[in-house]
Amino acid sequence: MRKSLIYITVCASFLLLGACKNFLDLEPLDKVSKDYLFSTPAGVKTVLADLYNRMPMEDFVFHPQNGFNQHPGVGGNGDGGWSLASNSDEAVIWGPNGYTSNPGTDIAEYWDYTSIRFVNKFLNNLIDLKAKGSLDEASYNQMFGEAHFIRAYMYFTLARRYGGVPIVDQEQAVPTDIAQVLVPRSTEKATWDFVIAELDLAIANLPAARPSDALNRATKWVALALKSRVALHAASVAKYWNKAPLTGPAVDAKLVGMAATDANAYYLLCIDASKKIMDNTSFALYKPAPASKEEAAKNYQDIFESAAYSNPEVIYLKSYIDGSANSGQGHMTDFWFYPKQLTYQTSYMSSRWGTTLDAVDVFEDYADNGVGASAPIKTVTTGGEGYIVAKAGQLTKATIAGYSFISYDSQLDPFKNKDVRLTASVLLPGSTFKSTLINMQGGMIKSDGTPVIYTDGVATGLDGKTYYSYGSNNISGYSAFGALGTAQANYSSTGFALRKFLQDTKAVTNLGSFGSTQSWIDMRLAEVYLNYAEAVAESGQGDAALAATSLNAIRKRAAHTDVIPLTVDNVLKERRVELIFEDFRYWDLIRRRDFHTRFNQTRRFSLVPLLDLRQNPPKYVFLRTQNYYDDSQNGLTFTQKRYYRIIPGVSVNKLIQNPEY
Amino acid sequence: MEKDSILRVFSYPMLRKIIAVTSVVFLIIAVGPLNVFASAPENETQQASISGKITDSTTGESIVGANILVQGTTKGSISDTNGAYTLTGVDRNAKLVFSFIGYVTQIVPVSGKAVINIALDSDTKGLEEVVVVGYGSQKKQTLTGSVASVKSAEILSTKSNSMAAAIEGKIPGVQIRQQTGEPGTFNSRISVRGFGTPLLVIDGVVRDGMDDFERLNPEDIESVSVLKDAAASIYGLGAANGVFIVTTKKGFAGKTEFSFNTLYSTKTPTNDWANVNVDAYTMRYMWNEMSRNSENFANVTNATELAKWKDNTLPGYTDYNWWDNTVRKYVHSNEMTLNARGGNDVITFFSSFGYNNDGGYFKNNELYQYNRYTFRNSIDAKLAKGLKMNVSFYGRSEKTINPTKGYNQWTFKRIITNDRGIGPYTLDGLNHYTQVPSENTNIFAELSKDASGYIDTRKFQYQTTVDINYEVPFVKGLSVGVLGAYDGQITDARTLSKNFILYDYATGTPKTTAVAPTTFQQQLISYVRKEVQSKMSYKGKFGQHSISGTYVFQVRRIDNNDVTARRQYDDIFTTAIINQGSLTNQTTAGFRTEEAYLSHIGKLNYDYKNKYLLEASFRRDGTYRYAPAQRWGNFPAVSAGWRIAEEPFFKTALPMVSDLKLRASWGKSGRDAGNPFQYYEGYGFGNIAGGFIFNPGTLTLGMVPPGIVNSNLTWVNTTTTDLGFDLDMWKSKLGIVFDVFKRNEIGLLAQRAAALPNTFGASYPQENLNNQYEQGFDMSISHRNTIGKFSYGITGTLTYSRTYLTHVERAPKQSTWDVWKDGSDTYYDKGRIQGRAFMQVRNGIYTSITQTATAPLNGGNSGNYNVLPGMDIIEDTNGDGVLGADDQMPISWSGAGTNPPLQFGLNLNASYKNFELTINMAGSSLFTMSKGRGDQWGYGTQYRFFLAEYMDRWHTTNDTDNPYDPATVWTPGKWEALTVNGNGNQTGTATDKWRMDATYVRLKTLEIAYNVPAKYAKVIGLKSARVYVNGYNLITICNPFLKDMDPERDEGAFGAGNTYPLMRSLNLGLNIKF
CA B500 to CA B432: how far, in whole Å? Predict the structure, then answer.
């Protein structure tokens, strides 16, 4: 026994020594090696998933103030349902945190070179894998194309915010001296050209058909649609730069700004890219020939409520899954934008969205005349619609008496003959949403002519009945103008709300828990038509007849029967109507340099339905007024320097700063 | 032959049996058989009886209850009340073993004698003490490093369920501060010389650190050694902050001795909060006054209302004392330990079972409860000649129940700041929970399991060790051995979260409409640690040269697991079983980690004539954490000692010096730094938000590429230098141990100050960039004496340690002020000294409103705002007319965020006849504590007025006068006028008025014990009995303004001192042996 014990003791030592050769070579359990990850298609997909997720898409989880992919818990729609529309003249958003601000001032920075580094690394990995022979040609080409598409998306996002930026297209090695990794800004033109070149690589390598098991991977057509958007933006900047010129070292070095002579080349790129998509017969407008206005309205609403690739108009979309079951996913569009009347029970936060009267007025009516003129809402019988009440809440009996209001039987009456896309996009006063009559009443005129506006009040009408200034004696009975300026102001401040993306016919589960899952349509054919039409109208290049047909095809789908001529103004007006709330208006104002003239101590407008108790039975009259919040900020102004954003970190990256920062 | 026969009787079936003794139940059953063996039939060559008397060699007093054992048998006896013993039938060639705890065991051959009187030497002489050190033990006199130790008796003199409290103030160089008295929360700050949290070694194996240490049952501990200098280097990579070595009790040869200790405690908080929750009327009166003083505030409660509050009878206008209705006056806790020690010269054992219950402080006593069971078994067996084995098992089971909402500081804050005008239940008779300002919740609901749920945390920990040693027969002094340890812990945390609706006190209307669903969460955390040591050691003496050496090869592996599952209950909560919940919104989470370490350890000791001492050690550690090129580290250490008192010239010159040893040491060690695997180029698992939906309905989780891969990261290197001496004069009448030390830390983690450009797409990882050092001294002075029947000992300890920053990676300083304040290497000469606080300088107080007109502006351009009499005049030290952060000067000490630089203790033991007295004091200095105004004091917020202090405040003599009228007459007081904390007044300014010196001395322990005389004890069948009363945290001497804070406790968030209070306890204890 003794001997065996000695043996065990001594041998144990040496055995352990031998066995311990690789004892310390543990692998981390929370990391996976590149080789393993790229050895299977499923592994590659996970890497791609991260890159696709980094694509800066201005979708339902884009928060203009906080940035992209603002999922639950990190801002996003969880921070009050902000949208790019409210930073333009489409909508006013107010919440307890007071989000109304000058356009362009609190748009989140996007300087995501970390994601760009990851794409660069991915490209290196691909090359490495191909060299090893572990990737087939088709997979390689597809992923190569995807990487360039994603990188194009990233640089596009940079270019339209900052102008020329440093182009880092290789994964930089850790330097011994920081100077080794300093990359200067490229000119704005070179940057746009880089985005175009990236897209060309993507177009050349991406497959034409959507992979059946991964519909949301990019295709050649998706890249072409992005190219159409990118080229139009670049062309517009070149053409209209001089409408808001800037000065300074960044301008001298052409880091911002382009020559007007460059415009036509970009317009042509837009025309060519758009044309390729228009020629592809697998894309078509959704139900292009409706039988009635009602059908047209439903068709248009369906595009967004049931966004899917089964709709031939959809080129690219982003999907969501229910965030109430998958914490970190889903979005809160329904939660934030449902009218107050529907959400008061779930939470005090709702109805943050007030569509402006400015946007509503742009829509045509069906008195089709071959001109395509907008048809502003009619509120008065004499003096035209040019009047604006500065402060509705301060109106007196005398001033009210001075208005020759048109009396309507219902809140919805003034909108009866408007373009169906208005009813499908905007929740109008007196409309029905989810079986609830949406009441937007903002006040009343007592039978003696005294107005009660923006405040609770009770009065007796000529008919002897009791009426309330908000149309209800219960805070759950109205959706607009309540508690203005306070933390409880979860009501529309304009008299209109949002309808476009809301789930009307479908139920939303877990309204407050990121339970919205409707897809975001990032690219659809209507935009391509309009890009084409604008590029043709602006440059005289391309097929003018085709452009006019495309423009009218969109109107026809909305039940218009006349044909309007191809003019820049007609195209732009159509963009405002067809693409309303789809994050185009903000960038259209930017690229065409219209922002600083559109917003110069500007108050956006509200339409206040008032119940006129001077009549028996009482009727509705409507008041055009400055939006309460815009007015309390003394109007909103876009300063010229905001066409470009401040370059972050110049003390370290040694970049030339943008003008006036 | 004799051995064989005993082995037969006591052989392996018995061994197995003893190994199976893992619970006290079995142990009690085992008493019978042991006693049977003790009186086994005598069948050997016998001789007539032996008798004698056992006495103390110094006092000559008889020793009662000493063990007398015939070596190699279980036969024995115990000395009686006169110290006399008798044994019959002992072999004439046998040897007798005389032993008694606290005395040196003696073995005497019978050699045919009939009377053997023995004088036992007390083994508290110190110099002969054996001290456990890294990978071995050493006689104290030949130690060359700075090693302090504390033995069982000293540990047990403090009664607390925390080991940290039990050694506080007793070991020089060890800094300990309790932070909370919350049951089951053991988070004392423990540091060796201000270095940080030390390493914990229990019975030769690195265990779980200070958390584990604090939870040990003090009754199980034989000794605690603290390696403070290069002596720690032998633990290599883990040893940078010093090492605690705990040795647990082992068995001894002799008749089985049972010891039963029980202790009952009554506790009250050390701080006085009784006057904090101010009554409803006074709060409103003061609130009005504060509003008046704050200009733009109107009277909050008008005169009519105020009169109703004063009247205190109308419904809705009565005072409700939240404090008295929420907390108990006394908290109760109890402890007991039963242990047994015994064995013969083949097998010895120690078995212990302990129980501790720490009760909650709240009237609803279901929450804040702690229960602990510990059991420990240690068995030593001689398996064959030269072959010894120790098997030990330690188990600990704990349970705490805490509320799910309102953890301690919020709990207390709520009670203190609750509006006493609002009662806990609605006035409408429906008894709904009310919403109570200022925290707008209801503490009754939060402390109710039914209303808000609970967090029930159970921990089970086990540590097993098998240690086999073999003395190689052919080479004298050489032994080899293997030690294996297998430890683990399982934490099971069950959280039931319920939600409740709060109602308006007066109207009974609900304040919220919806109640979030009840959820139940269970988290299971487990780890397993395996360690094997292969050991070889040699000990030899060649003439006057003594040499010993040790080599150990050590392998260590740790696996961690963590799984959490959560479900919600839709309609009704059924039971706390995860399966009972609904599948809606269920969540799971989990992770695992693994660790591996390899070490080679070598140590060499040499001494010549016990006079010239030398020790050298070496350790080579490998860790899984870093890149292969960075993972191996070498940690050498060397130390030397000279027992100068042994030199003949010294003995002649200074005969009163019994011992003097000069010591010097230098050693290198390290500290694991940074997250593991930073060198590994791997993709990380993204979170759900990082995924992408390729196909509608299906989420693909994204794998995130690595940032900068960091293969240069390595541990922090530390070197420790120590110079010291041990002095003993007049045979222990004066003992001094003194050490000066310096520890350098090289390569603390930091990010490079020069950042990469933001176009690079990644930032620099952490690197080993920063350097600092700690420097100071520690000492102890002791005195021991015996005068007749009165003997006593007194020991004082003192530690002073400061931290100096020598390199801190940081951006270049922008101004000379910045350079002076925190950037310069010339500030305090060498390095930037830590521990000083910058504050505004006070220079008197404003006594009239007119003075403020010419005062420097406190609110910058917005001027002075609500500056009132009684407020401090703040010095504009830079003379720019504006008061700001750049007027601050380093006038005071920082808070006790880490341990204060100066800590001290005083221990006194005295005994007279059967009485014993123990006094233990501890204290700290050179730190400050803040009393946050805004959050707790009346300045800034209503609801919060400390009544006693505010009775002595500046206020307008007539309470309707305008405070801003220069003609208004003021009544002066100690404290400033009440105002809302504003930008332009001094209420929010950091001064030493609010962050005050927190130096304290605390009487930690006062114990008076009575040892029942053995003759009486014997009457009731006991070997000995000791009863005692013990007071813990009895008296605190500190700035009286801190009396409701407790200067030892954690300062807590907002400087509000709202954390769970430390407890003052009165303990009644009994210790019996049988």
Answer: 10
**Residue A50 and residue B703: Cβ atoms within 8 Å?**
yes
Confidence band for A98, pLDDT divided at 50, 70 and 90: low
**Is B754 an 8 Å CB contact of chain A?**
yes
Looking at B56-130, list the stretches that DSSP marks H as alpha helix, in order from N- to C-terminal side: none
Res A342: pLDDT: 83
DSSP state of A194: H
Q: Tens digit of pLDDT for each residue in B18-52?
A: 333 333 333 333 333 333 333 334 444 556 688 88
Q: Do B699 and A321 touch (CB under 8 A)?
A: yes
| Residues of A with Cβ-Cβ distance to B759 under 8 angstroms | 113, 166, 168, 181-183, 653, 655
Q: Number of residue pairs across A and B with CB atoms under 8 Å?
A: 218
B622 inside 8 A of chain A by CB = yes
Helix (H, G, I), strand (E, B) or coil at A534: helix
Instruction: Compute chain B's Rg from CA coordinates.
Output: 33
Q: List chain B residues with CB under 8 Å of A172.
A: 760-761
Residue B384, chain A, CB below 8 Å: the answer is yes
Mean pLDDT of all residues in B847-864: 78
CB A360 within 8 Å of CB A496: yes
Cα–Cα distance measured from residue B430 to residue A557, given in angstroms and rounded to the nearest whole number: 62
Residue B438: cis peptide before it, omega within 30 degrees of 0: yes
Phi, psi dihedrals of residue B538, rounded to the nearest 5°: -140, 140
CB-nearest to B688 from A47, A50, A327 is A327
Token code pair at residue B394: 């330690």
Q: Tokens 């098991």 map to which residue?
A: A213
Q: Does a cis peptide bond (omega within 30 degrees of 0) precede residue A175?
A: no
pLDDT of residue A531: 98
One-letter identity of residue B271: N
- What is the domain partition of chain A in residue ranges? 1-56+110-186+642-661, 333-518+601-632
* B336 Cβ under 8 Å from any chain A Cβ: no
Please give the Cα distance from B161 to B679 (Å, whole number): 43
In a mutational test of the A interface, the residue from B567, B600, B700, B759 whose CB has the highest number of chain A CBs within 10 Å is B759
Two tokens, residue B165: 């409290």
Q: What separation in angstroms does the CA of B438 have from each of A372, B277, B404, B442, B979?
A: 61, 12, 20, 10, 17
Helix (H, G, I), strand (E, B) or coil at A538: helix
CB neighbour burial string for A42-62, b if at least 16 within 10 angstroms, e if fewer:
ebbbbbbbbbbbbbbbbbbbb
Is A649 within 8 Å of B758 when comparing Cβ atoms?
Answer: yes
The set of residues, in sequence order, having a beta carbon less than 8 Å from that of B979 and lying 6+ positions away, is: B290, B293, B294, B866, B868, B939, B985, B987
The ipTM of this complex is 0.91
Q: Which of B262, B351, B391 is nearest to B30 (CA)?
A: B351
A52:B692 CB<8 A: yes
Q: For A171, name the nearest residue in chain B, comparing CA atoms only.
A: B760
Q: Which residue of chain B is at minimal alpha-carbon distance from A72?
A: B689
CB contacts, 8 Å: B532 with chain A:
12, 16
In this complex, is the C-beta atom of B647 within 8 Å of any C-beta atom belonging to chain A? no
Under CATH, which number does the domain A1-56+110-186+642-661 receive?
Answer: 1.25.40.890
Cite the beta strand spans of A489-644 per DSSP E. 497-498, 520-524, 605-612, 619-626
pLDDT band at A365 (very low <50, low <70, confident <90, very high): very high
Instruction: Give the distance from CA A563 to its chain's centroid.
Output: 29
Q: Identify the weakest region by mean pLDDT among A595-599, B381-385, B974-978.
A: B974-978
- Please give the pLDDT value at position B878: 84
Quick one: closest CA in A to B480, which residue?
A: A9
**Residue A34 and residue B680: Cα distance in Å, rounded?**
10
In chain A, the residue whose alpha carbon lies closest to the alpha carbon of B756 is A178
Residue B426: pLDDT band with limits 50, 70, 90: very high
